[in-house]
Amino acid sequence: MLNTLHKNREIWSHPNEFYPDHFLPEEIAKRPKGSYIPFSLGPRNCPGGVYANVSIKTMVSVVIRKYKFETDLQFEKLEYKYSLLLEPVQDYLVRILDRNCINDR
């Protein structure tokens, strides 16, 4: 059900694409309340929603601060398949470099 809501063409300009502009403040203001509910709404919403968001932001900021990510692929050429989650069709390699070692080169 959430997948159907989150891909509604009446609400989302690019429903089947990874399109970060959907979450710009001016875009959020245009959407009806409840059009994006990854943790549900109301008194029975997911109690882990706030914890999940804080944990993810903390983890991502630590990883990005500590490591550098590189790939030879171009984002525009990646192909995706749609299932429960958006996933790439082909495998791709990513190099993860320790930022402390980069300065030693």
Structural class: alpha+beta
Distance between the termini: 51 Å
Average pLDDT over all residues = 86
Strand percentage lies at: 5-15%
Helix share bin: 25-40%
Number of strands: 4
Sequence of secondary-structure elements: HHHEEEEH
Shape: globular
Uncertain ranges: none
Give Rg in angstroms: 18 Å
> What composes the largest sheet?
2 strands, antiparallel
Strand order of the largest sheet: 1-4
Subcellular location: Endoplasmic reticulum membrane; Microsome membrane
Keywords: Endoplasmic reticulum, Heme, Iron, Membrane, Metal-binding, Microsome, Monooxygenase, Oxidoreductase
Main location: endoplasmic reticulum
Membrane topology: Peripheral membrane protein
Task: Please supply descriptive tags for the structure shown above.
105 residues; alpha+beta; two-stranded antiparallel sheet; two-stranded antiparallel ribbon; 4 helices; 4 strands; 31% helix; globular
